[in-house]
What does this fold into?
Amino acid sequence: MDNLRRYWLGVLLAAASGVAVIVALGMVFFYAPREVTMGEVQRIFYFHVASAWIGFFAFFVTFLSGIGYLATDKRRWDIVGLSSVEVGLTFITMTVVTGALWAKPVWGTYWTWEPRLTISAVQLLIYVAYGMLRASLDSSEQKARFGAVYGIVAFVTVPLSWVAIRWWRTIHPDILTGGEGMAVTARMTQTLLVTISAFTLLYATLLRLRVSLEQATDELARLRLRLERRSSS
Amino acid sequence: MSIYLVAAYGVFWIFTLVLVLSIWARQRRIEQDLEAFKDRLDRSQVDED
It folds into this structure.
């Protein structure tokens, strides 16, 4: 009964995130006005900002899970932390790629080594390294402890990325204040908020899927151990 | 419509699809392994009896 309820909750969450993403897409293309300076290409911003937001949120969840694991030694914290890194990496990669696609027509280049972009590139590599270094360890306890500490330390890149456009001279626009010649209207803000909400639902769906994969991996490891014990006795 | 705009929204769908398919493929493989292990455990139980 509990499994059935969990299954239908998952289906409901997936359906809700699918509908929310379609609504967000509709608003991006049919509700939000055409920005006067950048034109059509400014519409990239809605999904670009929302994916950055979710990437940061995912790494924040990993940060909290790291603290949770170190405080309790419970495997479920490690599962959430690891799963959230994988989902967060997908969203941060989306952010970097969509940002480059926006930059080409606006800045005339796909990439420039200004503070925000440089920090994003470093952040991406740091979280890719999380998976690679973790996989190189032997025991699950070592992996979990390493993942927890690494997830807490690596999180420093999130506030750093946030303040980069405020502390240093940069050409990256600030979406909240509408800087760098970008005229943000009420409809644009509403569209951005709906897109962020849709991405939050999508993140919850993907995290749930990734967590259940990790739980199945644990179940497999338990069965393998039982079988080994039985065949050795 | 700008090619960059189309490419950016294409990137979103491709990345989401790749993540979902990769999770689904790994889940399927693990479920197949789980079934195989459960069968082996059941068989070893019968042998012991």
